Amino acid sequence: MRTRADVTQWIKLPDGSVEVDEAGYLVDPSQWSADFARKVAQDEGLSPNPLHWRVLAFMRSYLDQHGIAADARFAIRFLAVELGLDKHDAKHKLFELFPEGYVKQACKMAGMRQPRAWSTG
């Protein structure tokens, strides 16, 4: 479900406060920090490992280069290349890292705005 743009709140982090929408996605992706990612991971019941951080770094870099969030296809392709996996195994690895879904967990942790038209997968 898409959140309402006018319903936001501020959350405190060790490196300052950030504004999030009602689902917890950053309103301004430039406010992203590792502290924000750790907070989201904690809220989502995840314990980020080095591979989580590599995926998040890829997503942040993609946003910087293209001005839009990378959809799951690009993250799967990234994992396939990084880990030498085929597409099927890379997809399983992505959902092993983010079991509640790419949009719900990976996009939120990476500081993306909530995607408008993507599925919640």
Automatic annotation (TrEMBL):
Domain of life assignment: Bacteria
Presence of the UniProt keyword Cytoplasm in the record: yes
Which sequence ranges form a coiled-coil region, renumbered to this chain? Answer: none
Q: What is its main location?
A: cytoplasm
Subcellular location per UniProt equals: Cytoplasm
Q: Which UniProt keywords apply?
A: Cytoplasm
UniProt lists the family membership as follows: Belongs to the DsrC/TusE family.
> Protein name, please?
Sulfite reductase, dissimilatory-type subunit gamma
